Amino acid sequence: MTPTGDEAEVLRRLAKTINGFLSRPDSGPFQEPVDWRGLELWDYPEIVPNMMDLGTVKRKLDREQYETAYACASDVRLVWNNCMAYNAEGSDFWLLAKAYSKRFEDRYRKLKAE
């Protein structure tokens, strides 16, 4: 089912937000699925059973696979939460995910209010 009206508009704006995040030079760790095999992070699937990345979110948005903005936002939150679950609190990756999470929540709140 394709979203209509206000929901479709919020999803369109979320797509712009995701594209903006993907264009940032520090977004590399979030752009594609974690190559846990290549990086030999054998415990990654145990700690992060529901993997998600911004590239996948973008593809799902482009293919209109989200029925609601909430579903899209849940996937975006999963990106940050996975990173913070796997990486030690205070590490560079953890801090980057925390910063992106705050930035996303600020923008999402504004999108929902408009």
UniProtKB/TrEMBL annotation:
Keywords: Bromodomain. Transmembrane segments: none annotated. PROSITE patterns: BROMODOMAIN_2. GO terms for cellular component: chromatin; nucleus. Residues 22-94 form the Bromo domain. GO terms for biological process: chromatin remodeling; regulation of DNA-templated transcription. InterPro entries: Bromo_chromatin_reader, Bromodomain, Bromodomain-like_sf. This is Bromo domain-containing protein. It comes from Phaeodactylum tricornutum (Diatom).
